[in-house]
Fold:
Amino acid sequence: MVIVPQLVGVVGLEIHAQIQSKSKLFSGSQVRFMSPPNSLVSHFDASLPGTLPVLNHRCVEAAVLTGLALNCTINKRSLFDRKHYFYADMPAGFQITQQRIPIAVNGTLVYNHFEGHKWNHGMTKSVKIKQIQLEQDSGKSLHDEERSQTLIDLNRAGVGLMELVMEPDMCGGEEAASAVRELQLILQTLGTCQANMSEGQLRVDANVSVHRPGDPLGVRTEVKNINSVRHLAKAIDYEIQRQMKVLRSGGTVINETRAFDSKSSTTIAMRDKEGLQDYRFMPEPNLPPLFVYETEDSVPAGVDSAQAVVVERLISCLPEMPAQKRMRLVETYDIQLEHSFTLVNEEGLVDYFESVVQKTKAKPRKVIGWVLDDLMRNLNLHNLNVSQSPLSPEALAQMIDLIESGRISSPVAKQVFQEMWKAPELPVEQIIEERDWWMISDVEQLRALCQRIVDGHPEAVQLIKGGNKRVMNKLIGEIHKVTKGRTDPVQVVAILEEMIF
Amino acid sequence: MMCNLGLWAMRPAHHRRCVLFLSALRAVLSANRTSWSRYRSKRELSSSAWTSKVPQVPSWEPIAEHQLPPATKISPELVDKLERLALVDFGSKEGVECLEKAITFANQLHAVNTDGVEPMDSVLEDRELYLRDDSVTEGECADKLLQLAKHSLEEYYLAPPGNIPLPKSEERSAVL
Structure:
């Protein structure tokens, strides 16, 4: 009997990242989210005759920086082309893009994939990036079905985009989601894109197909309208299942564009686009080739050095990438890898953590719990980000120092944390003083307490004497209750043992 | 004497008419030798070795049929596709024939030997692409821009819903 290999999914992503710049790619109008309609539109953006594109220096830098961070080869010479199609939100009738020779090619995106939520089963994976190209964004159209019209806002028309085309190296929704999350972090670290999917700064389209390993790739469909990383995983997984069902029932997959419907978590076929589009690519005659120089020395004599884009200069500007940061955190502070992920994922958290570690005498491993559990839990509860935390790193460091020096116990510290959160203006000592939460360190007092408990629980004492060590916990618990947690369990155990044996 | 500038101002309805106008103009000019002949004699005086770079007789030769690639025939499906992609209306058989003749005319370029020559797609290829500083210098002219639109609503341009589908191919072939 021939064992037929299982059908597997094949996923390739096409990502459009909006470049974080003050002005647009080819004109001097402002780039801003949410503005009065058509207020950020220049004569060029409105495609008025006689206007010409002028390339934005910052956008070229952004594309090169992104290419460098993703291990791409930067093309010293790249060209611009026109991609023709008609749609009301693109008044020129064509989009200026880079189809023949884009600015960066052949890169890799390295990401960590965790199976479900099993943090200790993480694997490092990579996906090949075919190319990164600069292109224009189109305007926004608001469809008014009732009155059979479309309202066009060109504020977004002409904004610079980096299109990242990935090879179909992934096989499922979870992998794609992990890859996109890592890309978001990288872009945010570089400052080239804010990568917020819900605000449209990062748009991801998935090309999905299924096949049996070894066979040629199957017919693919393009899934659009994905507004978050979670939706991306759902959309891809649904589409893979749908295609498998189609094939298993003897049908064929049609090459089409499908939209993801978040309400039903399914993909729906979009209106038929009249077969394959022919974009009639043509070189952009108004833009000469774009040159990017390797080193300061390679900039030719006639070119203004300040004007030129020099790769060497940009390499020295590259900040620490998320992957490097994680490794450094693990090595420097001896924390777990999964902790480093949480630290790096939250903006400002690494700085907060490092600040506390610097100000306290405690080991970083002791600090990490407070930062990742208590701090994050409270921030999430009140929907605040790290910069808005009422508890400063100094205050937290002071509190941790008090635990380390044995002046308050850990359980009490949890309560102190909550009080500090509510009243950040009060010094730590004052909060503890007002509630009389200092650890009982007077040995006589402790002995007296223990004696009382031992006298009050003769049966328990008998059991302990008989060898049942676990009952000791009950006694410790009693003391804990009586003193409202202001005792050091280690000391208490020592005293109790001394008394009993 | 002033040339009758009215001749220049009139745009010929058909390109062949241009020739008639030009010859009329030549007649007008030759009638008035003053400025023209002064110019000519001046040149003759300044440099006797002056030869014009403009050939005195036409120097081009018609390209032989065999040098051209085979004539392209445009199928109705291609007409459909081109009409959809470029939003042009071929209108009639004559329109399609005109296009076929234009293709044949352009095919003369195939006779040029381009061995070892890199294709040029911009006459600016030896110029530095100027990179603009990233600063806001334009915008805030919504009212002016919207004045140009036939239909607008509040501050939005108005457009029909989606792309209007073109007539089906059956209707097409009826016209052709």
